[in-house]
Amino acid sequence: MALHHVANLDELEEARAKIVSVNGRSIGIIKSKDRIYAVRNVCPHKSAPVCWGQVRGTLLPSDPSTFVFGLEDQVLQCPWHGWEFNLEGGSRLCGGRSRLTLYPVTCQDNAVFLEMR
Amino acid sequence: MSEALIRPAEAAIRPMIIDADVHPWVNGDIAGLRKYLSRAWWEHFDGRQTLPNQWLRPPLARASSNRLDALPPGGGDAGSDPVFMKEEHLDKHDIAHAVLSSIQAGKLAALPNAGEALALATAFNEFFLNEFLSVDARYKLAMVVAAHDPAASAAEIRRLGPLPGVVAVFLPLLNIMMGNRHYYPIYEAAEEVGLPILIHPTGTEGGFPTSVAFAGGIPSTYIERHTNFPEIGISAINSLVFEGVFVRFPGLMLLAAEFGFSWLPHFLWRMDQNWHQFRKEVPWITQNPSQIVLDHVRFTSQPIEEPERPEYLDQILQMIHAERTLLFSTDYPHWDNDFPANTLTRLAPTLRQRIFFDNAAELFHLS
User: Fold this and answer.
1) What's the domain range around B45?
2) Alpha carbons within 13 A on the beta-carbon side of B348
3) Of the candidates A67, A81, A92, which has its C-beta nearest B283's C-beta?
4) Which of A105, B15, B165, B354 is 20 to 30 Å from B51 by CA-CA measure?
């Protein structure tokens, strides 16, 4: 595993991905509240640039005709077909095996690193 | 040698059939229901004895949906003589149970007056209970309700639903989508008494301000109207699923009769695809909508499609999990009815048993 310096903390905008290239792969570095995520910029559905999507909360499973808001600032919604992914773990909110590809992130002082083989 | 000796095995194991769609008739429309209407209601109708009918009629003899050869020898319209129908249909085709739904009662969807619709619904139900179910235990009834007044209809379901022989609730469709909370009292009552909801083209579609509309506008011919029937089934199921009716009423079942079924694979794929994209608009849907349909919705086979190649139909049957979802029906005595001897004859015996008996037995709690 190698560490790649992909961003500085003070350049990252809240909930707006910085797109970088690491080993020829497009990766989105996303800062959402106190968390930093490194997300492969390819939607598992139809290969859309998923990191261009919005990071927001969503409406959780609920009783019919009622709405419960949750996962605030934790859901990445693909800009093409609206698939929703939980940035914590990358799983799809509809369930199933498709998920985001995430890379471990560490921060040292102002520098953001991701791990990749 | 008698036929029984020549083929003893076939005679012994001739399979029984449940016909999920048979249409009885009341001669004279409202006039024929007089015995089941109070004097006050009869006076109220005051000569209005003919139910509304759609202008676009089949280009067949008498502009009627009924076959000429199904007219009872003793007079009256096809489906009006329970004894003749018993011999001509139940006995002839080894029908173990025939689920009766009244097309005339379906015309209630054309009535703007809720009180009239309720009174006629009760009259139709009592007519068929007394005049048909008493004739032969094989007759079963899809009792009709007037969706104009869901609370009163729920009371009617609780009153008649538990009676022997009542196996479904026939809901003539108004121009309010089936998933709308307007109907919830009806669904609650049906679930409570264990009856599926049955929907069926009534002939009122697109023809009256109160009845369900066709997509795209008003058809100008009967052939267009008839070809468009699947639209009604699709929009009804779409609404029921995404409004969460089957989440709210997990025991509720729907039988979509005579809307076809070959469109179902496309519809299931599209529902699932859209749920993956728009999940958060309907967060009470927590599984593939197609699974909800397979668990809660059933379809009748008539009119069986006639594709270019018969193997196409085999593929459709697989795609729709026909071993669970499809119920054989004749639509007797209508012009486009199917009969067991020449319908779905290529099926494996186990699948034929499911479609011709078991699926209906499970849905209607019959043995």
Assistant:
1) 17-364
2) 7
3) A67
4) B165
